[in-house]
Amino acid sequence: MAMRKKYLHRIMWLGLILIIWEAVYYSNMYARQIFPSIEQIIKSLASSITKGDLLMQVGFSFIIILKGLIIGIILAVLFSFLDYFFKKFSSFLDTIIGILHPLPGIALLPLVIIWFGVGEKAILFIIIHSVLWPMTINMKTGFRSVDKEYIEVSKNLGMNIWQIFYYVLIPLSLMHIVSGLKIGWSRSWRALISSEMVFGAIGPFGGLGWFIFEKRVYMDTAGMYAGLLVIIIIGMIMEDLIFGRMEKACTKIYS
Fold it and tell me: Considering only CA atoms, which of 127, 136, 37, 8 is closest in space to residue 84?
């Protein structure tokens, strides 16, 4: 019921935004070359989809972000494991997180270009940096919030640290892990689009960021807004349908 109400409110506000947009367009407040109508944006979006180039670029962006997320999650799990069971590593990790976590991925771009050049490796590095630290912080917090009695009981049952990690810490920290994944996704998605705009066409198609950049270069503003619309739609799908359902499932497990 709450979800239905949320979507109804969202549709209502979206409708209002569309009406205001059209009113601004027909008022000629801005030149029509830089402020297209909703109809022009939809037509440009449909044209890019039917040609297939937009879908290929979205697919290319998703493949890169998926690689970065998988590597980032594996490293976060490894760091969190070492942090929980080895106190000396914990002190080292806290220092590294304190240094690197506040650093936006986009600020590392000049350095990354020197290290890896302009290409997929550079974008992967930025994505991993964006997902690794929030994911590690959330996993650390989740593990530390697990009641010590569960750990003591597990030890008394003869579990080793790998078994405690897999059977006790991970299941009891699921909410924190999902939250970390959600934050990591949003940061890496933003970093990916920014990197694609800076690095230009990577691979055979380029990504969604390159699609928007290319439209801007050719002053196809309707196409540029269509690209932004795709980013918004993907973001909403991920937030509401993927992470929203994961959080709901976790809440049901713990209730």
Answer: 136
| The predicted structure's pLDDT at residue 21 | 93
Question: Using CA atoms, how far apart are residues 16 and 224, in angstroms rounded to an integer?
Answer: 22
The DSSP code sequence of 186-213 is HHHHHHHHHHHHHH---TTT--HHHHHH
Put simply, whether the predicted model's pTM sits higher than 0.90 gets the answer no
User: What's the maximum distance between 2 C-alpha atoms anywhere in the chain?
Assistant: 75
Q: Measure the CA–CA gap between 68 and 184, rounded to whole angstroms.
A: 10
Pick the closest to residue 177 from 89, 77, 46 (CA basis): 77
Among 41, 55, 43, 105, smallest CA distance to 208 is for 55
What per-residue confidence (pLDDT) applies to 163? 92
Task: From residue 68, give the alpha-carbon distance in Å to each of 49, 113, 115, 139, 211.
Answer: 26, 17, 17, 18, 20
Residue 205 to residue 225: CA distance in whole angstroms: 19
| DSSP states along 72-97 | HHHHHHHHHHHHHH-HHHHHHHHHHH
